């Protein structure tokens, strides 16, 4: 370390690459969170209120995803799907699909707990004013559930953003992959990895701060 | 025909018979109070009326229409859609207020008006403001439930229910969860509604209030109606032994109970 001479010019020369990589990672995390939220909702309802034949597959899905390493799932989808005759997904799409399925399992658990924690009285009040079942979900249960689970959703977004680094394993040009490339091309080891580290750290922290503000805005249940 | 007609209503939870056979008429404009020890079935009966609980036998009819079941004698449950429409004609106020926590006072009152009754936003807002004003909360209409005291929340809940112009209002121990100093403001609102001719059925432990506001008092015991009549009769000339014991707890409140 003491004998290491920093040369940051390689970073500035590759700055555009780093920025693109960061945005790609963020984009993959956000899209996965959105798809994962949708999956999570469906699965949470299937497990909580669905017919018996749906509960079992929902349970298997959640436990399978949660008990298998994400990197393995990434390889499974990227290398496995074509073997099963499913082509047409590029690297980014393949990774987003994986991360969405992964997020979906975790969100399902978050939502299941959220739904279970809603006091029964809210649903009863909604019934008492004559709202129909779907209206009760749409106007009362879901909005309350989202507000209760917002902190968990926030944490999930930060985790997913960091997990996008695993896409480097299938050569998606996100931050970790880019740092490795710059490192390989320039032999500037510390500069490359410190830059990636700083960008992850800064972005993840910024996401958390922004979403804390959103949480505060919507924290109407105290 | 009475506004509400309950005939031989029965309900059990598992092996516990909570309602053994309830017969009760509530006339238009009448204020009927249900009193009795906890576990006597008052709340369960109230919840059967707007089908928060499904009763097992007998019938409850509002304006001659059986609530929750077909009236062709085969007693099949109605669809959720039909039941929801029936519930919209009955207002209910809960012990725990149950305001929607993510909505302001005004939005709480407006939800049923717009989504159930299909009113336009403007019209619903006008109605909501009228009722929030009537319960003394026009200054608080943009407040969220967590920003309101228990008494204020309960008044919003009352506004939310009456804004729907229900045929009948149900009050389920509306003041039991309130701090003592907040009880009076809620009782005043209920009394105001009673005077305006709203038909009400209320479960309450506020005996003095019941005596003042009710036109008929129903004492329930063990899932049955043990005695019913005008307040003077029930409170001052109780015949039923259990009623005497029950009223004994409020000894002194009504002069000499027997």
From TrEMBL, chain A:
Q: Which PROSITE patterns does the record associate with it?
A: ABC_TM1
Q: Does the keyword Nucleus apply?
A: no
Q: Which InterPro entries match?
A: AA_ABC_transptr_permease_3TM, ArtM/GltK/GlnP/TcyL/YhdX-like, MetI-like, MetI-like_sf
Stretches of the chain forming a coiled coil according to its record:
none
Q: What is its main location?
A: membrane
- GO CC, any one term: ATP-binding cassette (ABC) transporter complex
Domain ABC transmembrane type-1 stretches: 18-211
Q: What keywords are assigned to this protein?
A: Amino-acid transport, Cell membrane, Membrane, Transmembrane, Transmembrane helix, Transport
List where in the cell it is found: Cell inner membrane; Cell membrane
Provide any one GO MF term from the record: transmembrane transporter activity
Instruction: Indicate whether Membrane appears among the record's keywords.
Output: yes
Q: Which residues cross the membrane?
A: 22-46, 58-79, 99-118, 139-158, 193-214
Q: Which SUPFAM superfamilies match?
A: MetI-like (SSF161098)
Return any one Pfam family short name: BPD_transp_1
- Tell me what topology the record assigns in the membrane: Multi-pass membrane protein
Enumerate the Gene Ontology biological process terms.
amino acid transport
- Family per record: Belongs to the binding-protein-dependent transport system permease family. HisMQ subfamily.
Q: What is this protein called?
A: Amino acid ABC transporter membrane protein 1, PAAT family
> Taxonomic lineage per UniProt?
Bacteria, Pseudomonadati, Pseudomonadota, Alphaproteobacteria, Geminicoccales
Automatic annotation (TrEMBL), chain B:
**Annotated PROSITE patterns:** ABC_TRANSPORTER_1, ABC_TRANSPORTER_2
Q: Which CDD domains match?
A: ABC_HisP_GlnQ
* GO molecular function terms listed in the Swiss-Prot or TrEMBL record: ABC-type amino acid transporter activity; ATP binding; ATP hydrolysis activity
Localization annotation: Cell membrane
Q: Does the keyword Nucleotide-binding apply?
A: yes
The ABC transporter domain covers: 4-247
Q: Give the membrane topology, semicolon-separated if more than one.
A: Peripheral membrane protein
GO CC aspect terms: plasma membrane
Keyword line: Amino-acid transport, ATP-binding, Cell membrane, Membrane, Nucleotide-binding, Transport
Q: What InterPro entries does this protein map onto? A: AAA+_ATPase, ABC_ATPase_HisP-typ, ABC_transporter-like_ATP-bd, ABC_transporter-like_CS, MetN_ABC_transporter-like, P-loop_NTPase
Q: Which family does the entry's similarity section mention?
A: Belongs to the ABC transporter superfamily.
PANTHER family this protein is in? AMINO ACID IMPORT ATP-BINDING PROTEIN, GLUTAMATE_ASPARTATE IMPORT ATP-BINDING PROTEIN GLTL
Indicate what this protein is called per its UniProt record: Amino acid ABC transporter ATP-binding protein, PAAT family
Please give the organism. Arboricoccus pini
